[in-house]
């Protein structure tokens, strides 16, 4: 059979190429362009090479924000992954309870992120918030997320866990439901305890969805902006200033486009690097051969 | 090892069964002697897997009792029954090595590691799995995986019976044959009770000493493969076993003859006498291979038309019409086949009468 050298098929790729160009490549190019220039105003800019990168990498406040970010993402993963799996395991397997649970659990995922920040800001306000006022007045525990850094962190973590654990639950639940009944039957016949069933059947079979959940939760928590911005504005002090909040401060509030561009690229590379490392590591878990 | 007894077992998946048709299994009463290799043969949906799950304890029957060596185990869960089951798709613990997979049932029962190791090595030897012991089970071929599933049953020295639920479905044809003979070999060697569910008659007939044919929730006949072939007691057995299945012709009895739309077929006297007394819809049944084909008329021969011939290599199938009804004959290669008309002989020894689907006894 002869092959026709017909290259018209490439035209079919064109729409995707245009969309990706406008949504990702062109903005990225702009950021790269900014990151190597000192911009004074429209039409007034000087090429500065890697100066902004060196400056940003040495920035003490960026370092602080980065460690804060790692602590935050670490806590998010350490709490949400096990909690999500636990809730998924406890959910009903069939009957009317399934849709009820799924919809109830998924509700936080449907709320706009700014609204979530607002809900929690009001909920935890020490004067009128149900949680904040309750802590202060009913339980007598002083609680003020606008004043105390620990209270601010507790509030942000509670909000984050409330908002995003449902995603882990949904993914884990889907993974659990996909396990054929025969595995459970075999485990019963083999006399496996429920812990052994979890460890050797459910967890390995959920590997795929949990990898996705892990990566999504890492990325999203590492890039978090709207909710803490609305809730605490990065305070008190800089105690909840995460990378994205700090970036917005530099790029939009101070309008330092050059350093902002350099920061963005560094941020992007860190996220990419960690996703790559996590993905590789998770792919290997439980695949090594015993000798 | 155990003798497994089903005492009036019936099962319905509905919470409150009323009609007969609500039952997936209808009143099964059967005994499998210790050490027997038995096959449960039937089409999809006939209740064979349900029955198997009742034996293993994964299902508690709606009615009746299950006895192992005379002890009532109906209410016992599978882990307390000393039973092993091999499923249609290989069930493995993916993250474990082959060794750990085989050791799993023993470790769960708290057997000390030295004994576990010894037993696993023995079983791996029987199943030819020894070279793979340190490999991860997930990476092996389907037949090796099924052997591991089987091995998890064999490692338990107290195992009462091993149940197979269509275990060769996902195995390549040439490996199927190999694995089946391996199973037979293991059965001979270990003298365990094997219960083997399948819808494949070749599998059932070659594997088992005793085959139970199931149809619509009933065990319609239990017997040796030969018995099922030569003396089907139910129309379904005749039709399901053998290739092609038994011929059935609607008929009436007049004297010593079965009349099929006016054509008389001579029966032996005993069969005819029973047929005259029988109630219900009468049918005459004969295996295609016992049907005699002749080029010319003769004593006790009836005329039929040839509709078509199918050559299957070592034998040929001839499709015929007799009195408006279709039947098939199986001929060895080389026997000449007349053009369009033949005279059929129905050997009385192989010609049976069925009333409402059941053999007239």
Fold topology:
The complex is a heterodimer of chains A (291) and B (361).
Chain A: H1 10-35, E1 37-41, E2 44-47, H2 51-57, H3 60-90, H4 97-110, H5 113-123, H6 130-138, H7 149-177, H8 181-189, H9 194-205, H10 207-222, H11 226-231, H12 243-253, H13 257-284
Antiparallel strand pairs in A: 1-2
Helix pairs in contact in A: 1-13, 2-13, 3-7, 3-10, 4-7, 7-10, 10-13, 12-13
Chain B: E1 4-11, E2 25-32, E3 37-41, H1 48-56, E4 63-68, E5 71-72, E6 83-86, H2 98-108, H3 113-126, H4 142-154, E7 161-165, H5 173-190, E8 193-198, H6 201-207, E9 210-215, E10 218-223, H7 225-230, H8 235-240, E11 247-250, E12 252-254, E13 257-260, E14 263-266, H9 269-277, E15 282-286, E16 292-294, E17 301-311, E18 315-322, E19 325-332, E20 341-345, E21 352-355, E22 358-359
Parallel strand pairs in B: 3-8, 3-9, 6-7, 7-8
Antiparallel strand pairs in B: 1-2, 1-4, 4-5, 9-10, 11-15, 12-13, 13-14, 15-21, 16-20, 17-18, 17-20, 18-19, 21-22
Helix pairs in contact in B: 2-3, 2-4
